[in-house]
Amino acid sequence: MIRRGSRAYTIIALHLLLLVYSFGGVFSKIAAGASFPSMLFFVCYGLVLSILGIYAIGWQQIIKRMPLTTAFANKAVGVVWGIAWGMVFFGDSLTIGKLVGALLVVAGVILMGILDGEDRADEKDELLLGADDE
Q1: Packing angle between helix 7-33 and helix 39-65, nearest 10 degrees?
Q2: What are phi and psi of 95, to 5 degrees?
């Protein structure tokens, strides 16, 4: 079980937040296609504003618990969600270019996570070595 407050918990929470945030694009596209004074427009626009509010609060909580560089690198996963929602809700096709782009995004996020983990290990080693010098 993943402990609350652990690095894995924070990463999962970040990705769930990014999933919620990605629905903002879905609702904004639906609102853009609706006529202006219609109920659909106002409901979708209200959902977009609500999602942005949830995201703003959640993002602040995430960056309190992890380095901004790591959080921001993971934000690119929104591109993958955008491709998925385009296919699911709007009938977009998955082209080889979109697939390669999504794979590059995921590879970049994984690489950033690995490098961030190495940086944290180096920082811990430096702290431990510095403590021995005293």
Answers
A1: 160
A2: -95, 165
